[in-house]
Amino acid sequence: MALGDTLIAVSGVAKHFGEGETRVDALRALDLTVRAGEVIALLGPSGSGKTTLLNIIGCILAPSSGRVMLDGEPVFDGRWLRRDLRRLRLDKIGFIFQAHNLLPFLTAEENVAVVLDLAKRPADEGRARARELLDYLEVGHRAKVKPALLSGGEAQRVAIARALANRPRIILADEPTAALDSARAGLVMDLLRKLAVEQEACIVIVTHDEKIFDRFDRLIHLRDGRLADA
Amino acid sequence: MNLALKDIRHGLFRFVLTCFGLGLLMTVVLAMIGIYNGLVSDALAVVKAPAADVWVVEAGTKGPFAEASSIPADTRNAVARMPGVAEAGAVNYQNVEAPHGGRTLRLYVVGYEPGRPGGPRAIAEGRGIGASHFEMVADRKTGLSPGETIRLGRNRFTVVGLVEGAMNSGGDPAVYVTLADAMALQTELDPAAQRVQTARGAVSVKSASVAAVIARMAPGADVDLLAATVRQWKHLAAMTQGEQEELLLASVVDKARRQIGLFLGILLSVSAVVIALIIYTMTMEKLKQIATLKLIGAPDRAIVALIVQQALILGASGWGIGLILILTVKDYFPRRVVLEPFNVMVLAGIIAAVCLLSSALGVRAAMKVDPATALGS
Fold first, then answer.
1. Which of B1, B370, B377 lies closest to A117 in CB terms?
2. What's the pLDDT tens digit per position in B165-185?
3. Is residue A113 less than 8 Å (CB to CB) from chain B?
């Protein structure tokens, strides 16, 4: 598979919590590059720094040092280089959660369209994009249903649709298949790979789910805040 | 997409129930405001009814409402002849309890001279007093109807007309009779008591004193000058209409007014705390959703709008429900509940301010939420 532009470039990123005797080094001078079309897994035991790295790439957590570049734009170099990080997330990053975290008061369609609404796009465009994605993910027939009435698999597909609504080039997922059986987990991974290719996006997934390891381009192993293997 | 309305629709039953609870609280607040206003309005009703300019009462007293006052009935002639006085009338006030229709009516009997100041301001139904004796005009709240009769003292009176909003500061509805009848009611004894007095050799002398004389001035005449002139007579005192109203509010109903005012203040404080608690709890329950919104890139204004709009909708609904309920039940209160549009709007303003302040607490909590919390399971 031909890989495209570098979408995530993390260099020398370190993150520690606390100071002195209570200091914990979650990440130590970590370098990572992810290119368009790649689907990679972040693996490692609990406390190895996977979620910390995901949060730093998602501009939720500031590193203690290092540089971060997303989609060609430097966003961190000792400090955040953009004030409006939420706008950055809205434009460039899609998140998929383990617990799908759909807003319970919105229908499946609205859960997807809300991303475009927040980006101040016309309501018609939001609805059309939501229908397009839900149909593509084969949950279009559940568009008007609230999350409480969706099955686990349906809810996860709606969450994926939401992550893709604004056509982000970076998709971050935290245990997206943890609540799914093998067959559905495989379908979700196939879907994400297809999207990565079609939308020229990269996908970074934190997972412990061994049954999907063979679906990744790379498995990034973290141990004590460092890359153990790549 | 209005997230606040979507969230409300999602939990509509619970939200409506919360609004209804708040509405009941607002009903109590509005009722207290109405009772407070009613107390003041009732107290002033009997003072304002004669549309007087000057009240002439007994020297050294603050009569006839704050204190008892008794002056010679012919004072009216003397006052009527004074410069600037257009007309004057003598009046008498007393409380009586009269049995009627199997119950006891507590009435505020106003004696006045028909054709002179002191009578009812406007007849709502029937006619005014036309005969010299045994006719009365009653306030509608007495429950009496034109044509009915009622015994007051030793005589039976016929109701010939009805008025509205005439009562004393205690809320007892007023009945108007002629001054002569009122004076007789005040002085005539029960036959048995009269026989005892006669046997003791007491001479029955009908009192020729009245509680006050009220004067209306000719256009352009100086009210203060008349009051000052009257005060020169050592046995009389005079008060302008304004002074009489001030006196009534400052002494007769002052304690009740302050009591209700204080209770109203406490009630408003409790309401503010309850509203704040509801809105804060509503926000706390949504923290995970707010974290999700922040994570997917929602700007602060979208999150603030979600909280503030819900707070204002809650406050407006509570206020509306409270207003509808109090307007529905206010006539069933034993005393008048007077709600002025100004009071209702001031309460709306207070509720809006409380909702905004309360939502500020929720907004503060929402702003502190780390978007990363949405990533956890």
1. B1
2. 888 888 899 999 999 999 888
3. yes
Q: Are B1 and A103 in contact (CB < 8 Å)?
A: no
Write down the domain spans for chain B: 3-43+255-375, 49-252
Domains with residue ranges and CATH for chain A: 41-51+82-229 (3.40.50.300)
* B10 vs A99, A104, A162: nearest CB: A104
- Residues of B whose CB is below 8 A from A106: 3, 6
Q: Encode pLDDT of B248-295 as tens digits.
A: 888 777 888 888 889 988 988 998 888 888 888 988 888 889 998 988
Q: What is the pLDDT of residues B111-160, one digit of tens each?
A: 999 989 998 888 999 998 988 889 999 999 899 999 999 998 888 999 99
Identify which of A85, A122, A72, A93 has the alpha carbon closest to the alpha carbon of residue A203: A93
Angle of helix B12-48 relative to helix B3-10, nearest 10 degrees, comes to: 100
Distance CA B20, CA A134 (A): 39
Which amino acid appears at position A114 of this protein? V
With CA atoms as reference, the chain B residue closest to A165 would be B296
Element housing A29 (H / E): strand A24-35
Partner-chain residue, chosen from A86, A88, A106, that has the shortest CB–CB distance to B6? A106
Q: Does A89 touch chain B (CB under 8 A)?
A: yes
